[in-house]
Amino acid sequence: MGEEDALTVDQNSYNGGEASYLRNNNPSPHLSSKVLTLPTVLTLGRVAAVPILVATFYVDCWWGRTATTSIFVAAAVTDWLDGYIARYVVVLFQMRSGSAFGAFLDPVADKLMVAATLILLCTKPMDALVLGPVPWLVTVPSIAIIGREITMSAVREWAASQNGKLSKAVAVNSLGKWKTTTQMIALTILLASRDSSLERLLPPGIGLLYVSAGLSILSLVVYMRQIVRVLLKKK
Asked: Disulfide check for 219: which of 12, 70, 175, 185 has CB 3.0–4.6 Å away?
């Protein structure tokens, strides 16, 4: 989700990968020199919440399941909130609310939270109600989603070391935003459906996770095609 909430005020630099911020000789004037801006504090909170999420997931009682779902929802909300602050506080109040460190950390925090949640769900086979216990039901889309994130992180790092055109080729698009939205909703539903009173939400949650996995692969293909076009034009 972090890549989709990149700082609009410095979109090209951020979307080129974390390293682009560190290598940029002319950082955006909207970026604060402070390390702990408000968006960065919210991002650090998401990182700190990951081990708590893991701990509550294995608490086998109602409050453990509720806490796990609540932590994930809070992380998703703060991810949107820090992106909102970084984008609109700058425009409305001319304040430097973003930071290079925060721009680097934001996608890391999001990937940690999503990957941890997917792995946790894979450790406990989901009961698909009609189909019965199906161990691979969550594993397959999880591999697709995590694999895509690892690949795109490497691609953006490489693009940032090349030139501006390649960085623009891997800039966040609307397909990536839809991928992130469906992913967050799906994981929220799957975490909530661990409660016996909400088991009926499991099938739509799994279906939405597969939609998210499909969008993940599709967006990866789109990015790769854009990179190939840029490389072919250079020849």
From this structure: 175
